[in-house]
Amino acid sequence: MEKQSADTMINDRFEAFHIKDIVEENNTLYHYHSFYEIHCTLKGSAVFFIDGGEFPLEPGTIILIPPNVLHRIVHQTSDFFERTYLYINPSYLAALSTTQTDLTACFRSNGGINSRILSIDADQLDQLLRPLRKKTDSNYGTDLLYQNHLIAFLISINTIAYQEKEPLFLSDSLYKNKDILAAITYINQHLTADLSLETVAKALFMSPYSLSRTFKKETGVAFHAYVVKKRLLKSKEILRKTRSATATFEACGFNSYTHFLRCFKQEFQLTPKEFLQEEAQNQFVRFTHFAGKK
């Protein structure tokens, strides 16, 4: 299934994109979406941002991106950059999984899984992806055959994730500014606490001005906007469990129910109630840009 652009997920199950377009430096947007993404580098190299860290992409690199994680390609570092994306609906992936074989496991960075960033031989990766790059048709059985190719690929990726001996974590990123890594880590670990600029700066022994200025320079995102974004993404996880907006807003760090509703509607173009309704109908497949560096 080959496409020339990867802007959104249209199919309600999964899609594959094979891309060779040039990535212009600082011309991509921070974004997140409600489905799983697997980013595979086949040829060339680039720098990839994922939720606070920048990592090098080389042939054979696999980035496993869970739903609602901020990411983007920062820039390519070679003249030619070939990659394949896979987008997978969470409900569909859960339905393919069994009690013995959890196909979502590779997207978790804790428990039995070492990392969300894998590195294998580039030729091996190309062989794994080749069946998924074949054009599909409407002939009898081709949809199930293609699904079987996807399952085989996911089993291989999960096996590689379990066997990875040198996992990459946030501390292994390319960022030279450890203060920003510390700030992002602090935010992620204290979403329900006071995350004012002054509070976080004090915890990191920085001045508020320095933290604000450096955070925007390094990430392309304003400090407060990042905090709100992370809390809103967390709110969707809590909503799925509680089914109640009033039980959610404080649990994800908002002090005001009204403020939470306003931010949620502005961010997702849905009220919490509408979000839950679309989730129930299995229609919530969205791709959202997050204004940052352009």
From TrEMBL:
Keywords: DNA-binding, Transcription, Transcription regulation. PROSITE patterns: HTH_ARAC_FAMILY_2. It comes from the Bacteria. It comes from Enterococcus casseliflavus (Enterococcus flavescens). This is AraC family transcriptional regulator. PANTHER family: ARAC-FAMILY TRANSCRIPTIONAL REGULATOR (PTHR43280), HTH-TYPE TRANSCRIPTIONAL REGULATOR EXSA (PTHR43280:SF2). GO terms for molecular function: DNA-binding transcription factor activity; sequence-specific DNA binding. The lineage of its organism: Bacteria, Bacillati, Bacillota, Bacilli, Lactobacillales. InterPro entries: AraC-bd (IPR003313), Homeodomain-like_sf (IPR009057), HTH-like (IPR037923), HTH_AraC (IPR018060), RmlC-like_jellyroll (IPR014710).
